[in-house]
Design a protein that fits this description.
The protein is globular, with a radius of gyration of 17 Å. The longest helix is centred in the N-terminal third of the chain and has 23 residues. It contains one helix and eight strands; from the N terminus they run H-E-E-E-E-E-E-E-E. Strand 6 and strand 7 form a beta hairpin. The protein has one domain: Lipocalin. It is α+β, with helices and mostly antiparallel strands.
């Protein structure tokens, strides 16, 4: 009886852990941060589009995310040109991101972009 209870408890906790990790893997919402002296904001929407502001200039485009690799891949497509980046979650509302480039880096540089999600920007599941 005790072993059945332990197996059931392990199963329930593993299902819970999988569900929790799915929740964390969302970049939807408004993210703000700094890269050196540059202020940056990115707003990722459910329809695969995003808007951003850097140095007071607004831009918009489409994005793609691949959570199956670590660090995760983020493609920002603006006017047909793709900026390829990598990122990881520091916690549910903080990401560390490399500056997007034409060719995706495999490792982070020393200087990265740290973005915090504006909590009230979107309702998360």
């Amino acid at each position: 009886m005790k072993s059945i209870f332990c197996v059931l408890l392990l199963f329930i906790s593993s299902v819970y852990a999988v569900e929790e990790s799915k929740k964390e893997k969302s970049i939807l919402g408004l993210w703000k941060g700094h890269f050196g002296k540059k202020e940056l904001s990115l707003n990722f929407k459910k329809d695969g589009t995003f808007t951003g502001i850097e140095k007071g200039k607004e831009f918009q485009g489409k994005y793609k995310v691949d959570f199956s690799v670590t660090p995760h891949h983020l493609d920002l497509i603006i006017d047909g040109n793709a900026g390829l980046s990598i990122f990881i979650f520091i916690d549910k509302n903080t990401i560390k991101m490399d500056e997007p480039e034409e060719k995706r880096r495999k490792q982070f540089r020393k200087e990265t972009i740290s973005l915090k999600r504006e909590i009230n920007s979107i309702k998360l599941p």
